[in-house]
User: Which sequence fits this backbone?
């Protein structure tokens, strides 16, 4: 209860104004760090304004209450936030991705397992009944017989990608990033959406592999897919990993923390993994447009396969060892 | 503390203070989203016109830039603006909305990225049907992206310091000569009515004259019904002056009453 309204306002307004100035400065420059004296002053002003807000009685001026609540809520956010504001330090940013990946290896293994399961399904479906190809991989370029496609592409004299390579790579980048992000975002369905997307990707992969290998075109397949697929497929798997991390935080198996705390704990890792996967897909898009579409004799298969294997080894080394303490 | 409406997010601080955020309705969020969609379209169109200038170099390169920049703008618009404007996009700013952390803490960059990356799921199958359904059914009106990122969309909490002149002590207030009146008014007047009267006094210049007369007549009648006002105390006061005097009595102290009386 305020004993003397006019004295109360007169005495406290100076502190309200000071807190407002401090907050405006902090909000204008979130990266700025405070000295100990500044932090102590902010804490004092916050506590003083909180006390003033608590003292407002039933007859308090409603706009004054709203003003004090707004001040206290803004100061509360600044004082009780223990996570540091975003500062881009390239070394930390690069380490954040592989570290986040390694922290959630179980989710990645699950994503790999589901993709292998889907691939096995696609493989056996096409091997059992080649007609299912039209249903499992409804892409115009894959409808013809692999042998015919290989013969056509190896004998072509014209550069069919001439004048469209850059725009094609742009389409691939954006499409694949959308797929990876959607695979992550589908984790919000307690993982069911992520499971379906990974399984479907696996089915297509398995069906294509079965079709080409059965037709004796394993070398062409490896030369075609490995240069970009050695980055693109792991990136989609990373999207799946992020989806399962999200699902795990939602479900909360074996955790006594509330859902909001679990989600808060994984938000940084989700961001690091998705951002890393997006960078990988930019590279994969360029390789797919500029390298993967060219076959023997323009680019020997051994060179393309070797390039893909090197990329995969480099990726494995990066994710497995970078930033280890 | 003030009662918290069901559409509010209430946060209790360790200091024992509770403050609340008024949550945005799906309608206001939808309107803000329309503004943002128009802004994204406008920016993309503007950028595509600029990019076309490079057509003399390579049409393929122009097409590449067109595809990539549209993607970057449509994904990055929300992320960049919500980061730089502390939870606001153009649409949210126009409608006075802000994305806030569900615990009232400072919004973090990964939270902003996460809530924006989940838009594709929220927008399924068309026009944010899933996100809209989630916002209507969850306690804090969160779409799926907000649930994952621990955020809510609320109305702005930025208030300017109010003008307290209507309740500041006056040099002369005839009602202050009757100390019992202050006690009776403070006991019997409802806080809602007092708040309403205060708002009427503060905003009186914006009312049209006849509505202003009618409003203050009603308010004066209400306050007169709470206590017996001696004829000498209210003589010559218009309804508006009477309401102002009552508010000063309610907001000022018995101590000041005695001080005036002794003069």
Assistant:
């Amino acid at each position: 209860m305020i004993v003397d309204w006019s004295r109360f306002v007169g005495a406290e307004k100076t502190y309200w104004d000071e807190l407002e100035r401090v907050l405006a400065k902090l909000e204008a420059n979130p990266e700025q760090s405070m000295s100990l004296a500044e932090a102590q002053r902010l804490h004092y002003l916050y506590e003083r304004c909180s006390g003033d807000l608590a003292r407002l009685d039933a007859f308090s001026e409603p706009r004054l209450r709203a003003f004090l609540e707004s001040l206290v809520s803004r100061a509360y956010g600044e004082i009780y936030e223990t996570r540091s504001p975003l500062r881009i330090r390239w070394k930390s940013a690069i380490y954040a991705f592989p570290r986040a990946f390694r922290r959630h290896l179980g989710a990645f293994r699950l994503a790999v397992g589901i993709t292998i399961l889907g691939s096995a399904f696609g493989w056996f479906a096409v091997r059992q009944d080649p007609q299912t190809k039209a249903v499992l991989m409804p892409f115009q370029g894959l409808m013809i017989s692999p042998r015919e496609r290989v013969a056509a592409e190896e004998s072509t004299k014209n550069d069919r990608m001439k004048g469209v390579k850059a725009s094609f790579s742009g389409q691939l980048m954006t499409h694949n990033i959308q797929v990876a992000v959607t695979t992550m975002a589908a984790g919000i369905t307690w993982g069911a959406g992520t499971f379906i997307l990974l399984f479907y990707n696996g089915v297509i992969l398995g069906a294509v592999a079965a079709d080409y290998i059965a037709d004796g075109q394993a070398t062409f397949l490896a030369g075609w897919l490995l240069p970009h697929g050695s980055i693109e497929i792991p990136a989609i798997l990373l999207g799946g990993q992020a989806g399962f991390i999200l699902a795990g935080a939602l479900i909360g198996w074996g955790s006594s923390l509330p859902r909001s705390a679990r989600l808060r704990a994984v938000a940084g890792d989700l961001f690091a993994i998705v951002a890393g996967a997006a960078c990988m897909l930019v590279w994969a898009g360029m390789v797919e447009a500029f390298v993967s579409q060219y076959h023997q004799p323009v680019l020997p298969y051994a060179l393309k396969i070797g390039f893909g294997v090197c990329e995969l080894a480099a990726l494995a080394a990066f994710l497995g060892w970078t930033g280890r303490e | 503390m003030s009662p918290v409406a069901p559409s509010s997010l209430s946060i209790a601080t360790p200091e024992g203070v509770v403050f609340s955020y008024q949550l945005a309705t799906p309608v206001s969020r939808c309107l803000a989203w329309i503004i943002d969609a128009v802004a994204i379209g406008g920016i993309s169109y503007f950028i595509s016109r600029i990019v076309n200038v490079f057509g003399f170099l390579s049409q393929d390169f122009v097409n590449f830039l067109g595809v990539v920049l549209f993607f970057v703008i449509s994904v990055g618009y929300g992320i960049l603006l919500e980061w730089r404007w502390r939870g606001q996009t153009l649409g949210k700013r126009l409608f006075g909305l802000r994305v806030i952390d569900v615990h009232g803490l400072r919004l973090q960059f990964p939270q902003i990225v996460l809530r924006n990356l989940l838009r594709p799921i929220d927008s399924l199958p068309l026009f944010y049907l899933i996100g809209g359904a989630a916002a209507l059914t969850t306690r804090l009106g969160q779409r799926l992206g907000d649930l994952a990122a621990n955020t809510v969309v609320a109305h702005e909490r930025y208030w300017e310091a109010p003008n307290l002149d209507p309740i500041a002590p006056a040099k002369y207030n005839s009602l202050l000569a009757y100390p019992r009146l202050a006690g009776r008014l403070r006991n019997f007047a409802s806080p809602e009515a007092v708040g309403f009267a205060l708002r009427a006094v503060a905003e009186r210049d914006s009312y049209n004259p006849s509505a202003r007369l009618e409003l203050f007549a009603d308010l004066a009648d209400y306050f007169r019904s709470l206590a017996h006002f001696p004829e000498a105390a209210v003589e010559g006061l218009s309804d508006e002056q009477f309401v102002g005097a009552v508010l000063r009595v309610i907001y000022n102290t018995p101590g000041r009453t005695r001080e005036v009386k002794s003069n």
